[in-house]
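Please, structure for the following, as tokens.
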Amino acid sequence: MYVTHLECSKTGKTYEPNKLYNLSEAGKPLLVRYDLKKAARTLTKENLKNRVSSLWRYREVLPVVNDENVVTLGEGWTPLLPAKRLGAQFGLPQLFIKDEGPNPTGSFKARGQAAAISMAKELGVKKVAIPTAGNAGGAMAAYAAAAGMEAYVFMPRDTPAANRIECEQLGARVTLIDGLITDCGAEVAKRKEAEGWFDVSTLKEPYRIEGKKTMGYELAEQFNWELPDVILYPTGGGTGLVGMWKAFDEMEEMGWIGSKRPRMFSVQAAGCAPIVRAFDNGWDEAPEFENAHTAASGLRVPRAIGDFIMLDILRKSGGGAVAVTDEEMIADTRVVGAAEGLFCAPEGAACFSGLKKLLASGQVSATDRIVLFNTGTGVKYLEAYGLKEAR
């Protein structure tokens, strides 16, 4: 709403607002910048109390100019749950779960797609395409349908059936690819010019970050403007991690919070852990993870274009990265569910698996205020829990 320019995340080069972009000239993600002084005149802690219970409550720091272009299905403002029983079992008196399962299409991907599709609508896009591990495709299909756009979804052939069926029933054209999300991305890149598609891949357009950053705004508001000590976030493409860090900086500039930041921890699957490997080795980038495999389809991202941004955030925050096995996250789905009545996606349960390792290594203390992100509902991952699709 108060966008001043876009900025290359690597070089700092600026770009005019209100134009259609994918990556910067350097081939890196673009970040949206705002006139936060103007935004803060009407966006205040006090008037938030009377605003809509969706991510659009933070309207001034979202990029859509005209209200008629906002495409919304009620996304955002998800619960922050005190995990009292789970915390009591493990001696963690300040354990919380930010549950993204109640979002439209059952995952946090609704946030990013709400912003991306709204901006695509504002900028005249008629056809959108996406490579997806599952949930992002379903969210894109939903918002594209609501916006009256054609949607083209490319997903690995072994993506959970719920994701494929969801996309099909929402009117998207689904193509199954023998390979990983990176192979799907290559197919979109190869065909998009000829087909007239706008590519809404993770961090390959500027606006999914803007929807995801609202998780950071919500955390601050739900904690009465005191950020937690530790955040564990399941990381595939990493848009949410990048977005929340951006939100913290914006809130500080508006005078809402101080300079203290949570220690950010990236949680990945042992079978696909490019960020963990890069962090442990002191690398600034995360090369492609060979033979990537995991039942948590959202974590099966062997190479993330925003790798250098994420690694910088983890180090600046004093956090880190941890890998867990599929067996651990599947087992911990039941541990979390039995204690809290919450059927997590494997990615969400992975955060609890990772937390136990961080506590054992002393990187996280039992006295910390800890937030685990459950990024979606486990109902969409039934194959991971032993159910085979009936044909």
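The CA atoms of residues 296 and 346 lie 5 Å apart. The chain has a mean pLDDT of 96.
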